[in-house]
């Protein structure tokens, strides 16, 4: 089995606070991998290390067997951060065009992809509207569209569905499944238990440690629990 | 070219953000005008007494704004003593002697300018002897201020706008988003310098041209040189602003850099005489970009200096830009090692 993302013996501190402790994760090509944990458990830190914008204090991160950070690997993933990271004065089209240009997409390719990703997140009607006039949910969706603009083979999403209504959340997950069909690897962080059930495999995080990794079904079966929440309480309690 | 992509985006943002654009264009002009209205003594009647001035020269002077009265030397000395005249012009041995009251450098400067303007064609004031009745005042103070102010306002406004917008990139998360794409750190910095650089060229031209042609700041040198120096000053301010934004967590902290970084530069840039200060105090001025910008601008505008004379200041300014830019690229390492 080839792993698309590998994190080996990662530990990290901010000052004296320990953020991550001896993390080992391997993510398979083409799966939806979830990072589940309460806020402050280290999800965002892990995700930032995968993208290469944060170097771990100890340990190594590999993307496609290449040590991060690597400019070559940076082309291959799309990253949707927790903040929307959009230019408020610019329209959706200008934002997407800018991000597309960073990945050196040709002009016609950008035009084509902008249409596709805006369709995907259902914002086509608002293409030429400045982002500052968008609602919170619309900004989240545009942020997702920006992460998809260059057809990445890995998508890293940090809390993609926060502040999005259930109908739209459903449709975003539909999109993620569709991308998975096309062979895209998806890494997603969440603190919502029922969202975690939608992942192929799941890493549960608490206080900077991985307390369990497996598919949601196996995790539940293993301890005879009926919900992910019970699983989390089981391992989380045991870790204390 | 990612640098070019970034530049284009910044210019697009500028076009949208009308208020920042207005701030960068209108604010310096507004403040400069106000400053000039306060400092320039134009509205005041300038009373000048004429002592033994030949008739032809007196006729040319009558076209000026000066309030002229002929009187005897004794009377003139008495009147200048109690301040009812601002100066008197005396003819001794075929040569003009100008005696200025001297307690107000603005008035003194204005009178000299008026006399020179009025006598322009066959200028006998060229070898005019100027002295002060209350002789302590430094007459050049007035002329000194103009070039320094041009340099200062360019520096000040570019520093704020450049620093705050780079900071905003940091706080709204787009810098992180940028660095999560295959852009080089140097491309981010050059893109910023390029995008704002294009805009600051316009701004420098505007401030310099407005000061020289509308406010009529004393200027004998080449406009191209003035623009060259103001542009270099703007680039220094821009690279310093973006660099310092790395050490600010929010806009509030960024604004606090102003009294720390900008205000001291004003003290040492030549607005106030520093020759008498201790050597170590003068040395502080030597590490400040505005000192060199103001020095070069004064040279060009007051003494018509060419490249040969102000080149040292110019090279030092270029040095500052290079230094701050490299430090900028280095500071981004905090966000991404590569």
Report on this structure.
Chain B: This is ABC-2 type transport system permease protein. The complex is a heterodimer of chains A (240) and B (338). Chain A has 240 residues and is of the alpha/beta class. Chain A is built from 9 helices and 10 strands. In chain A, the strands form 2 sheets. Chain A has a 6-stranded mixed beta sheet with strand order 6-7-8-3-9-10, sandwiched between helices. The longest helix of chain A is centred in the C-terminal third of the chain and has 16 residues, at 166-181. Chain A is globular and about 50 Å long. In chain A, 46% of the residues are buried. In chain B, strand 4, helix 5 and strand 5 (129-132) form a beta-alpha-beta unit. Chain B has helices at 2-16, 18-39, 55-62, 73-81, 105-118, 141-171, 174-179, 185-214, 223-245, 251-268, 279-286, 289-303, 307-331; strands at residues 47-51, 67-70, 87-92, 95-100, 129-132. With 338 residues, chain B is α/β, with parallel strands linked by helices. Chain B is elongated and about 85 Å long. Chains A and B meet through helix 2 and helix 3 of A and helix 1 and helix 7 of B.
Terminal Cα separation of chain A, in Å?
33 Å
- The overall average pLDDT of chain B, rounded, is 83
Q: What would you call the shape of chain B?
A: elongated
Biggest interface, chains and residue tallies: A-B, 31 and 24 residues
Shape of chain A: globular
Termini distance of chain B? 18 Å
| Radius of gyration of chain B, taken over Cα atoms and rounded to an integer in Å | 24 Å
Instruction: Walk across the major sheet of chain A and give the strand order.
Output: 6-7-8-3-9-10
Major beta sheet, strand line-up of chain B: 2-1-3-4-5
Q: How many distinct helices of chain B? A: 13
Task: Estimate percent helicity of chain B.
Answer: 55-70%
Give the biggest beta sheet of chain A. Answer: 6 strands, mixed
